[in-house]
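Quick one: structure for this chain?
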Amino acid sequence: MRRRLAAYICVLLASSPTSGFGQADPIYLIIRTDDVGMSHSVNMGLQRLIDTGLPVSVSVMFACPWYQEAAEILKRHPEVAVGIHLTLNSEWKYYRWGPVAGREAVPTLVDADGYFFQSAEALYKNHADPREIEKELRAQIERARRSGLKVDYVDFHMGTATRYPEFREVTERLAREYGLGMSEYFGEAMDAPQYWAAPRSKADSLVALIARLRPGVNAVVTHVGVDGPELGALVDMNTDQPLPEMSKNRQGELDALTSQRFTGALKARNVVLITYRELITKQGLKAMRRPAG
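Got it. Here's what it folds into:
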């Protein structure tokens, strides 16, 4: 099945207008896959997604325990665009992570047990020091650089690294310093409707998304994983609705993205799949603009 799907995708890509971004009214789509390195189950979901042959942009949480496995997977697939999922939160009950810089180096970023706070709001209420934000985000970027991966861009776990003006200023400055693109800063239309859909309806949601894409650069943010005891044990401390069964929802996203319904919808609208690496190469880092709002 995987070989047949991969062959089908090759036909799809070969028949799509991929010669450049200057063509008349093309529809481009970036598939951004977040939270890679969070757990083994998420990494296995990533491997299955990569095996389809779909061009993907993969955002790795270098603060999490399983990032090294994710890096080894990605080293075998240099065609995949790699991003740093800049992380300032740890949201799962009983499964926590803390700063790469060390809890003593960034005391305003951690709770009494030395872990990141579960939400952006909780972090902000702790009067997080922007100098410590910079120290931690820099440590994550440096860890990513030491991993041996080619890093193309950054984005933001739970949106926290750009949620508040003083956080955003630090994040933008670091991206400029390290020559990295920033997801959402190239005018791409961002969406993730399948996230909220029930597992069995996620393919329907993605097909509906493809039907309403407009010409230009679009991006869909995805979260994949393999349903099982590891992911099934995780409980989000911020909310238990509308996704109390996170494990099944991440499996549902993986199933939807690897379905022939999804690739068929792409082909029907002649959607061109691109990665952040390709977008940055075509537009250049100077094209980045802070998104409105």
